[in-house]
Amino acid sequence: MSTPHEVAVIIGSLRKESINRKLAHELIKLAPPALKLSIVEIDEIPLFNQDWEMQPPQAVIDLKQAIAKAQAVLFVTPEYNRSIPGVLKNAIDAASRPYGQSAWPGKPAAIISASPSPIGGFGASHHLRQVLVSIGISAMPQPEAYLSHADKLFNDGGAIENQGTREFLQKFLDAFAHWIERQAS
Question: How many Cβ atoms are within 10 Å of 65's Cβ, its own excluded?
Fold first, then answer.
């Protein structure tokens, strides 16, 4: 077997018990052998300030190094007010600066959103796609993944028991592994 692709998993929520954090942990368990998913925390990233751009805080340096080391990025995000959470946009902005030294270009990516709402984070996913285009990330176009009513997906231990959902997530991850391979060639 070849070496698995290193994938940085970025969660758009800081809450310890967030739906999307639980989802990220389930995705790590469901990942095919072709993917090695590792969560890259963004909770220590200060609000982007161009004043520190040339000498960024250590948390930003660490984020940029984690992104540079990864072969791909998986964004797992909730939707706030029909868009992406501010902490996620802030992390993307911080790792994209200074101009010409972005950590993002050329990385294949996938987006999955989960929300208690009936549309499952559709707005966040599409806003995130717009941002990713501007920083040179190629987001997997299909399958799209919006998990609606996600507050009811997890048992008390944080696992997804619904077999149909688990199968969908495995197919999503298989497609992502294929997407990474296509982008690498």
Answer: 13
